């Protein structure tokens, strides 16, 4: 990669980390979108996204947990199946002909979630889901997390909010811890993929660390969140189209 591309990738990754960490996410879909825009090789995209996810989600989990905003029982209810499933998914190598459309579709789904901002649900008392719900859901999200290099949080958080399993602020803590566990398992499931990490990784790590620090400090209430998330959603749409049609 030339220096100009590296700078732009780092800037976009920092922006993605700031936006996603503000709501407890690791930002993998943003990192995948950025790498897709700059035609990074698919075999490099997956481990890089997981490695960056690991840092951002780990920081977010620590930050939310230290403030008492993480429901560890709910994390465990999903992680019991998600973590081993992510380990299995991480060991599966998909050829580019399959990986690119799969990630492209996931990016579009993530974009739809970002572009569609429903009104805040009416206040209600959170209720814990049964293991009959969390165990299969965790397994599906875990496989997707390891297979594609995402943490699964972009899908878990709307489920938690929509079904009233936890209140919004604590949902961010749950999702951060969930993503961290899946990212660890995804990388462990395919240790060989670490050899495909780019030499520019220290630059990208520095960028997302700065973004995560800013995002978790600002928080949702201090950001003009709807418009920023819509902008990010537009980037995901473009990147998804690039993977699907080129």
Automatic annotation (TrEMBL):
Subcellular location: Cell membrane; Membrane
Membrane topology (UniProt): Multi-pass membrane protein
Family affiliation: Belongs to the 4-toluene sulfonate uptake permease (TSUP) (TC 2.A.102) family.
PANTHER family linked: MEMBRANE TRANSPORTER PROTEIN MJ0441-RELATED, MEMBRANE TRANSPORTER PROTEIN-RELATED
Annotated organism of origin: Sphingomonas anseongensis
Major location (coarse): membrane
Transmembrane segments: 45-62, 74-92, 137-165, 171-189, 201-221, 227-245
Pfam families from the UniProt entry: TauE
This protein's record includes keyword Membrane: yes
This protein's UniProt keywords: Cell membrane, Membrane, Transmembrane, Transmembrane helix
Protein name as catalogued: Probable membrane transporter protein
